[in-house]
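To close the chapter, one final illustration. This time we ask the reader to focus less on the individual chains and more on the assembly as a whole: which components sit near each other, and how the overall shape emerges from the parts.
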Amino acid sequence: MTVKSEPENLTLRFWRLMYQTYTLLKRCEDQIFGEYGLTTEQYGVLVSIEYLGEPAKVTDVARWLERSTNSVSMIIDRMVKAGLVKRVRDRKDRRAVCLSITSKGENALKPATLGGLEFIQKILSPLSSEDRRTFVSQLETLKYDLLSYLNPGVDTEKVKRNELEKKANLRKWLDLYALPSTPGARRQGGRKKKAM
Amino acid sequence: MTVKSEPENLTLRFWRLMYQTYTLLKRCEDQIFGEYGLTTEQYGVLVSIEYLGEPAKVTDVARWLERSTNSVSMIIDRMVKAGLVKRVRDRKDRRAVCLSITSKGENALKPATLGGLEFIQKILSPLSSEDRRTFVSQLETLKYDLLSYLNPGVDTEKVKRNELEKKANLRKWLDLYALPSTPGARRQGGRKKKAM
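The assembled structure is written out below.
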């Protein structure tokens, strides 16, 4: 297949579509998470704590969200006031401020995650499994490319290895939130309850 | 090629990567546009006016940016104060508030666009032309899917046709901003100046 070279056109379309698609996605998420009393930003903080494992360092939460520690701290202040998370001391490093999720936070996170996952599955449904796989892997390429742009000399292989180490938490999280309609959930005989 | 079915995993990865990639892209853009005294939001407003053609209705700018008219109006207030755009009356509909770009706005928009296009070309460079084309077309599918989710019953074909009608402005814009290094710009013998 011959591909006509249109570098400017594709560059502009990519640029505009990344913005539009993300903005629309954010508006959909604001609606979905709003039903559970969460903003999209607050939801992100809760998910990152689940991913990282409790108690999670604020600096790790900020890195996971690709945001500055300052902006994440402001979101956390409001979440502490709303009773969604609490600040705790790290057992190993007494100076580090860590976060854990309150039961109120857990009670909002679970249905919000199910609602969000169902929504994303619906949105991705026009793409074939293979197309989804390709799309996700290209997104990943772009992500590491952007990361290198912002942090020249960053060891992206090391970043990838660190993310793989968190896979145990990811697995736990997936088991916990597996949608009843997915093959993984059926194999486990339905949704598991987290021991609290 | 056999694709192992991992619906939850791909759904989650897509979700997280869309967030991370966009957030990183936004941080890069903040840096780039900041060099020309613009925020990424202000840059978006200037580009939409160029795209739509002057004078551009505020409601059309908001629709182009996929944002609410209220949030765009707040950005515009600051841009009017900063002397980047001015409010004008529509010639056909005297009640509609329209926008045109001041010469200060033009002087910021041009180098910011060149910087932005160069950056996006660099970021996309690890993907082959064919991969870029596939990625952009999948992004487009997702965009219209999200648009239908937010506006049930929306005529996406009509939206697509409206966007095609703006192609003349897009072409003008591309000619104006074509990077000297691209085939399009070389064919035209370098960058064109816009008649002001």
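The radius of gyration of chain B is 19 Å. Chain B has a mean pLDDT of 82. With these observations in hand, you are ready for the problems at the end of the chapter.
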